[in-house]
């Protein structure tokens, strides 16, 4: 009975591992984002720096069409390929050579490169798929699959015969590998949608690192080196999360860029509305001040955007948008009207604070010095009201600010 029980467990573990690796192989073969490009290039000579000719131009087109951009814009960019082999072409060839395991990857398009190019193009009928993430060719992916299948066969044989070097809980490792696969798939989906070329390239690098660490970890696991596998899986998770972070940064960048543009348009519309109100004899001084402030804040947002601080740019753009809305509301109001509105709002905040603190007292809670803070805030608001009556709006503003700070202090005591 004991032997039968362990035989059943071993069969279940074998089936679980087989299913897991099937999922991994499926991930390898079908998940990569591919781009295809037809090419009629015929290379009969070596290409290097200073080479010129139609074959150079065809090489540039092939590289651009398959994810190894010669240039983002200008000469050498998609649709603007040139017959001149310069440093940008060399750099693109290096990337292609690295992706296809050509050594040395020096940017010299010689016999080895021509042979690999011919095999890639010929194997898929003049269409050369490459992965957008990691820039790995389909041939390289297929080699990966075959290697994993071979490793799996050996590993299963060892496990069936009891040749295992560790009693590590394989179920937990299987679960972790499945979780990392899901993470890699999510990262691939997110990276696919990145429009910014620089951010896209960084995210691709992180995702390529994640995939390589994962596959190395899988091999370590199949070799029963579980500690090494765990370390590599840690690396895979970290790199995949970096790719997702890059993708999030890209989304934040797009959001900030769009909002800055929208607020710029809102400011133009608000200025037109303020100008019309001024012509009708309405008070617009407060609205004009707020628009000027919105412009300054939007300038700060644009500077933050240019420096790559997209989160700060987004926050500043939102602040500028709020100021524009305030400016629209301020049309027809004098500065005195505005300060009185602030005083009324502060008094409402004070009343709410008293209610909350009294409720806390009724519940038996310790409110510390909260009551003292509110009494002091109440005195400051009375002084602010007197300052408004005296026409000293600046003094009133300062007193209201101090009162609001004391109200916050009172809440801190709860």
Describe the structure concisely for a colleague.
With 414 residues, the protein is mainly α. The protein folds into 4 domains: 2-28 and 158-247, no CATH class; 37-128, Muramoyl-pentapeptide Carboxypeptidase, domain 1; 252-330; 336-412. It is built from 13 helices and 2 strands; from the N terminus they run αβαααβααααααααα.
Describe this entry's structure for a reader.
The chain has 414 residues and is an all-alpha fold. The chain has four domains: 2-28 and 158-247, no CATH class; 37-128, PGBD-like superfamily/PGBD (Muramoyl-pentapeptide Carboxypeptidase, domain 1), CATH 1.10.101.10; 252-330; 336-412. Helices cover 73% and strands 1% of the residues. The protein contains 13 helices and two strands, in the order αβαααβααααααααα. It has helices at residues 2-30, 54-65, 87-99, 111-123, 138-160, 170-192, 197-222, 226-279, 285-306, 310-330, 335-362, 370-389, 393-412; strands at residues 34-35, 130-131. A two-stranded antiparallel sheet has the order 1-2. Helix 8 packs antiparallel against helix 9 (285-306), helix 9 (285-306) packs antiparallel against helix 10 (310-330) and helix 11 runs antiparallel to helix 12 (370-389). The longest helix is centred in the middle third of the chain and has 54 residues, at 226-279. The two termini are 65 Å apart. The model is unreliable at 1-14, 28-38, 123-147 and 159-168 (pLDDT under 50).
Query: Percent of residues in helical segments?
Result: over 70%
Number of helices: 13
Poorly predicted residue ranges = 1-14, 28-38, 123-147, 159-168
> How many β-strand stretches?
2
For the sheet with most strands, the description reads:
2 strands, antiparallel
Mean pLDDT comes to: 78
Oligomer: single chain
Globular, elongated, flat, extended or rod-shaped: what is the shape? Answer: elongated
Radius of gyration: 33 Å
Strand order of the largest sheet: 1-2
